[in-house]
Design brief:
Blueprint: H1 3-13, H2 19-29, H3 33-49, H4 62-66
Helix pairs in contact: 1-2, 1-3
């Protein structure tokens, strides 16, 4: 995963991503396993920090989400 994608993902998680960054991420997420794994880790960390239940985090519905 490139540093640019990592920065775009971080911006998305902070609700600061622009349309170009979002489109770049959505285009790459289907073919980049490292990006998907990082996205999942960032979401898990965010959920834990906000006190949410993370027991459901083992589910992978990314293929249905992309469809």
């Amino acid at each position: 995963m490139s540093e640019q994608l990592r920065e775009s993902l971080s911006a998305l998680m902070d609700n600061e991503a622009n349309e170009l960054e979002l489109q770049r991420l959505l285009k790459q997420v289907g073919s980049d396993a490292e990006l998907r794994a990082t996205w999942a880790r960032y979401n898990a960390a965010s959920a834990v920090m906000s006190g949410q239940d993370v027991s459901h985090m083992q589910l992978d519905i990314s293929s249905r989400g992309r469809a």
